[in-house]
Design brief:
Elements lengths: L1 E9 L4 H9 L3 H9 L2 E9 L4 E8 L4 H10 L1 H10 L3 E2 L11 E3 L7
Antiparallel strand pairs: 1-3, 1-4, 1-5, 2-3
Length: about 110
């Protein structure tokens, strides 16, 4: 199992709708996440900075392949079309990233 974390900004005027759509995530999207071997997935919001922090545990053997299959699914593409305009990627993110990947510096089981 690999713990993974990412962060991104959230536009101030999108906070309430972002919370609402994530309280009602489409079942197809939840199934795609599970099929990609992602478990224990959480997103946290820090206000007033409007920073989203996502954490999950990856239980597969090839995250790139699982993520690509998930990204190719029409339901996931529609979900991202809904959510992406509400987000503000960090200027410091890597070229290929939307959410900026974070390095784990401490873990206590």
């Amino acid at each position: 199992m690999q713990r993974m974390a990412h962060c991104i900004g959230l536009k101030p005027d999108a906070i309430e709708i972002y919370k609402r759509v994530h309280s009602e995530v489409w079942p197809e999207v939840l199934e795609l996440i599970s099929q990609a071997n992602i478990r224990n997935y959480s997103i946290f919001l820090r206000e007033p900075e409007n920073l989203l922090f996502a954490y999950w545990e990856y239980h597969g053997t090839d995250f790139a392949a699982d993520a690509a299959r998930m990204a190719a699914a029409p339901a996931m593409q529609k979900w991202w079309e809904l959510c992406d305009p509400m987000q503000e990627p960090l200027a410091s993110r890597a070229t290929h990233e939307w959410w900026a990947r974070m390095e784990e510096v401490f873990h206590h089981p």
